[in-house]
Each structure stands twice: as structure tokens, then as C-alpha cells.
Amino acid sequence: MSTIFREQIRKKIADEALQVALDNNSRRRIQSRLAAFAAVPDFQERRQRAHAIRAEVIEHLDKYLEQFIHHAQKNGLIVHRAKDAAEAVQMVLDVISTSPRKVSGEKRALIAKAKSMVSEEIGLNHALEAAGHRVVETDLGEYIVQLRHERPAHIITPAVHLRRHQVGELFHEKLGIAYTEDIHALTATARSVMREIFLKADVGISGVNFAVAETGALTLVTNEGNGRMCTTLPPVHIALMGMERLLPTLDDLALFISLLPRSATGQKMSVYTQIIHRPLQGQQRHLMIVDNGRSRMRESGLREGLYCIRCGACLNACPVFREIGGHAYVGNDGMSAPYPGPIGSVVSPGLFGENFAQLAQASTLCGACKDACPVDIDLPKMLLRIRAGELPVGKRSEGQSLPTVVKLGLAGFIRVSTLPGLFGWGQRVLGWLSSLLPDFLPAPAITGWGVSKNFPKPASKPFRARFNRLSAEKLQGWSRQEDRYVAEPRQSAAPLPPVSLASQFISEAMAAGAHVSTCAPDQVLAWVVSFLHGRKIDRVQIWNNIPHLKASDLMAAGIRVEKSGAPEILAGITGALAGIAETGSLVIPGGDGQPLTASLMPEIHLAILRASDILPSLAKAIQLPEVASAPSTVIITGPSRTADIEMALVVGVHGPKELHILVVEDVTTD
Fold it and tell me: N or C: fewer beta carbons within 10 Å in the chain?
């Protein structure tokens, strides 16, 4: 472990504000994750299926890439493949240099960028700025760290290391607002700044959570609405994707979407799940498929690291990350690791080599990361391999470079531990000596161990002896209890009445923050007009062909109706292809007469959903043929939200502040 790494660790542990921020993050993330999976009785089965799917993809990556690229190109995406970071950056620069500008004659591009770990990995922002372009991170946490000229401190929560007063000072200094620690006010400031960026951006850049080989679809999972803005409003969209982010089928996608948000943020579904098949009308979509060391890693003992879905659960569970945070993870040369935490300690050396091999030392090997992983990645096993010098880049490293005395001691231990009789005798001797020794033994500096810790005192009795004694006592106790135990007759619980899909949908949608009402088909117009008049709204953006609602009837009621969006329009009215009962989500396809901006730009989104269109599950919904035929489909679960500042939930970041769903009851006939 380098001196720089040790210094970073000591510095972060001594930072009181950081310690409070990390403690709050880990506690809330772990609790919300456990609560989210408590309602999933087959979680272990799901994660094993997910592991098998990811193993299949990585094993046959070339086949799935070929299948995916074929369908993506057929859908109208312009696909580029980059072997390394330099090639990926140049491809992005080439696309931007030839893209149209919203401001005529302007040479530099304004780029609205959504969260992308691949962009951090290849150093994209620095290259764009060096070429004269203006790039703005639009995720709230990413925007905060960009203003501070820092890397993200967490895969999911980039500004996890900061307290509200630090963000308040930053916005006061950089944006010129009055100093405040009010998180709602700080978020509102970011919303006002970003709205202008979204409207004027020449290019939008995003990452890709999953790509589906059988359809050529790209999937983005976000909460704030900035990802949708970056992929919908600019005339050019560039998606950056690590070559391993593939899934074979839409059924597999449904499985992984059930795992990712629960693991990342404790939600059943993120607010926005986009499934992109084609460019929107008048838009270019470019996809950059990046290798950058993944092929080498795939052929190494670290290939399982490529199964990762970037949920960040292992970071929240790791006792080391909870003490030092993401910025302490640095290479031998002091360079910040693109990926921190347990998965970063595998992926960073796996992709970039020996410089980051020391990160594997920042682990207790307790296995908490493996337990938290929704794909059941064996991170401790790979951390041990890195410690042993197994790296895919270049020749085999020297591992820990242990002092000779330690190597001899370990060799002796291996010899003794393989002989049960000798090992047992050694344990008894150490147990006898323990009564004569202090609680901790100072380690000689020559071992390298005593730099940061001491040898623990040997146990007074071997584990096997203690285990056998406790087991015997428990068995005796159970026998005594059984002598006195009288079984009571079981009473079978009365079966619960079935819950209708509509009732389940309404309950889940309201739990996600939506407002839900119901009415008969002939009451839809009156309900909508009453709602709009009650809010003093006389201008809306609306879809064509909404069930039970005609634009002409709204106009007759004094409501100005527009098909395209404008920043000053306060309400958007859409239909819905389907509702999803298990999560309270809406399936909203975009296309001709169905502008996605109606569910994105206004402060209020009003959706009309027929009860007969409510389906039980996400798996059923994404198999609807209209999903594959639409250029882009968004699955919406509640209003836009963020918790990037001190984990405080704020509703209405970049997307609508309110989501109102009107469920139209089925018509029954006697």
C-alpha cells in the first residue's frame, strides 16, 4: 500500500463532516434496501438467475454484441465501437464537431450530460472542455461535484461526501445566490439553471444501464428527469456503454429492473425507466460501445467483475468504504480511481492495471459486499486474486511484496495448518500462553503489519473446542425443553380476499408519491376541467387520442390546447399504454401525436389510464408490441425526485413536481 493511499485514508478518517455524511448514507441505504427486498420472497432465486444471465452474456459476449448491434443499427442507431479511452473520446468529439448548433454560427457546442460512469472512466469532460465545448453535468450530485472540480464519490450518490452547508457555500460562490442550507431551495436553484441548459443544448450525452440483444434497445434508469431531458430534447443524443452491459431478452431486462433500483436506492422502481429503440423524429442517436480493457479483464480471473450492474450496494455495505469514502481510493501515483469501493477495487485494477492493485488492500474480506450484491458477485475471491498478483494487464505483479520474515512465517503456517495433529497442538500451546500475554501484541516493524495495526491476542481455547461445548449445551437444552413442550394445535389462517389489479395499482402509485383518482368514462372531461380550473391552468400540452378525452371538448371549456411543449406550460396531459400493478407505474410510449415532453416538461403531469389496461407485472408490460414499435417508451413511477444532498428527499427536480393519475373505471353491462 503506497504512502499516498495511507495518507488519503488517514485524512478521510479524520474528516468529521465526511464521517457523518458516510454514516448517514450507509445507514439509510442499507435500511431502505432491506425494506425493498423484504417484499420479494424469491430474492435469492432472482439473484441466482441474474448471476447466471450475466455469466452467460460474458461467456458469449461476441455473439450477444453481434446480435445487439444488428438490431440497434436496424432501429436507426448509429453504432461506434472504441477499443480504448482515446478512441472513444475522439469518436465523441467527431460526432459533436459535425452536429448542428441551435445557435447559428456558434462553433462550440453546449452539451447536457446525464450521469455516466464510462464518461468518468475515459476522462470525457476534460477532453470536451479542452476542445472548447461547454459540458454541464445535469444530475444534481454530478453537478455539485463538477462545480467543485471533483470526481464522483459514489457510483449512485456522487456528492455523498458533502453536507448541506458545503453545498450552500458552493452555490453561493459559484451561482451567486444568497447562502442557504435549505435543501429544497438549493435543489430549486439547480432546476432553474438546468432548465435553460436542457432547452439550449446542442448535444445530450447519457450512459446506458442495460442493452437488450434481441431488440437493440437501450435502457436508462434515473430518478430526477435529467436523463430523459438529455435523451429527448437535444437534436443529437450520444449514449456511452461499456461493452458488457448486455442482456439477452426483454424478460431478462424485467428481472434486472426488479433488482437494480431496490439495490441502489431502495425503490421498487426508479421514477423513470427509459426503453429507447429508435431516434425521435428529427433526431440522431449515436451509441459508443467501449472496450477499454474489458476484453482483457474478460479473459482473466477477474471476469466476474464484469457482471456488475453498478447499483452501488457493495459500497454501502462495505465497512471500509463507510469510513474512508470514494475519494480515498487512489492509485500508486495518486490518481483517483474511476470506480471506488469493493467493486472499484476489482474493476479499476482489472481495467487499468498495477497502478490500482493496492485498492484490494482496502478490504476486510468480511463478505458484506458479496451478500449485498444483487448479482451475487464473489468480490472477496477476486480481491484475494488481486492481492496475489493476478491482473489482466501486463505481466503478473508481485502481489503484496511482503517482507521475507512474513513470507517465511506464512510458509510455516501453511505447513502446520495442513497437519491436523500438529495444528491442534499449536492451538493448545497458544491458548496456554494467552493467559500470560497482553490483549494486543505490538508487531515488529519489519513485518509491515505493525504500521497500522497490532497482532491480536490468541484465543484461550481453539474454536473447535468452544463450538463443541456450545453445541453440546444447546442439545441438552433442547432435550430439556422438549420434555416440557406440549404442541398446540395449529390454526389455519383465513385466506385473504383477492386484491384487484386496479386496487393494487392505486395503492402502489400513491406509495410512490402519485395522486390517484377514479371516475366513470363519461365523467373524465368534467374531472379534468375541474382539476385545471381549480389550479387556474388555462393552457396545456396534450396527446392526440386520449381515451374519453377530446382536445376539442377542452377548448370548448376554455382550455387552450397545444400539441408541442413550451417552457411556460404548467400541465401536460397524456394517456398511458398500461399501468403496472406491482409497482404503481405508468407505461408511456412516445411517437407521432404522443410527445414525450408532455410527461416531462410541465410541472404537473396528468395521465388518463383505463382500468382495463392495468397489468400485473413489469414483465407483462414491456412485452407489449407498442413498446417495441415506439421510438422511446418511459415507465414512470411517481414524480421526479432526488436525495443527492444529505439523503433528503426532494420531489420535482427536473421532471414534473406532481403526477396525477385518473383511473377510468371499466364499463360493465348487466
Answer: C
